[in-house]
Amino acid sequence: MPTRQDPRRAASGFTLVELLVALFIMAVLAGLAWRGVDGMLRTREATQQAIERTMRLNTVLTQWEQDLAALHATTTVPPLQFDGRSLRLTRAAEGGVQVVAWSVHDGAWWRWVGEATTQAGELQQSWLLSQQLRGDEAGQLRVLEGAETWQLYFYRGNGWSNAQSSGDVVSRSSGGASGVPAELAEALPSGVRIVLTLPAGKLTRDLLVPAQPE
Predict the structure, then answer these.
(1) Lesser CB count within 10 Å: N end or C end of the chain?
(2) How far apart are the C-alpha atoms of 128 and 111, rounded to whole Å?
(3) Could you give phi then psi for residue 62, rounded to 5 degrees?
(4) Over the stretch 117-126, which tens digit does the pLDDT of each residue have?
(5) pTM of the model
(6) Cross-sheet strand order for the sheet of 80-82
(7) In a 10 Å sphere around its CB, with 0-12 CB exposed, 13-18 middle and 19+ buried, how is residue 42 labelled?
(8) How far, in Å, CA of 194 to CA of 10, rounded?
(9) Residue 43 phi/psi, 5° resolution?
C-alpha cells in the first residue's frame, strides 16, 4: 500500500540547501554567460582596431605612391635622395614645386611637406629645412604609428641596390643660354622599393619612378 506524503512537507517548498544549490548554479551560468559576452566584445574591439590600422596603412601608402608619382626634377636640388633616415624628393604641386621628406623614427612613420614655390632660392631653403627637422615643424605629421625601421632600395640598371649607394652620373640641361655646359647629376632610378618593419611583420612595396623630361 503506497505511503501517503505528509501534506505539511509537500507545502513547505524548497529547502535551504536546494535554494543554495540553485543559486550556485545560476551564478555559474551567469559567470559563463558574462565571460562569453566579454570575449565577444574583446574580439569585436580587436577586429575593429585591426581594420582601422589596415585602413590607416593603406591611406599612408597611397600618399607615398602619390608623392613618388608626382616626382618633378629640377636643377636646383636633388629630385630624390635617401640618407639612411629620410627620403627627400621634389614633387609637382599646385603653385610650383615642393619638397617632401619621409622618415622613420621614434616608433612612427613621418611625412613633412614644404611650401610650393617657383623660386629656386625658396626651393633650396625648403630642401635645407628638410634636413634639420626635429618633429614639431609646421607641415610635419606623424602619419603611421608602430613603424620600427625601414630600408629603401633603388632599381638601377638590371637590379635593386641600396638607395644610399651611388648611381650613374648623367648630364642634364642647366637651363641656361647656349654655350653653357650641362650640369652633371645622378641619374634617377627607375624604381623605388620600401621595406617597412611593422609590429605585424615586414611590408614591401615596389613603385615605378616616372620618367623625367630631358
Answers:
(1) N
(2) 16
(3) -65, -40
(4) 999 999 999 9
(5) 0.73
(6) 80-82, 86-93, 96-105, 108-113, 140-145
(7) exposed
(8) 81
(9) -65, -45
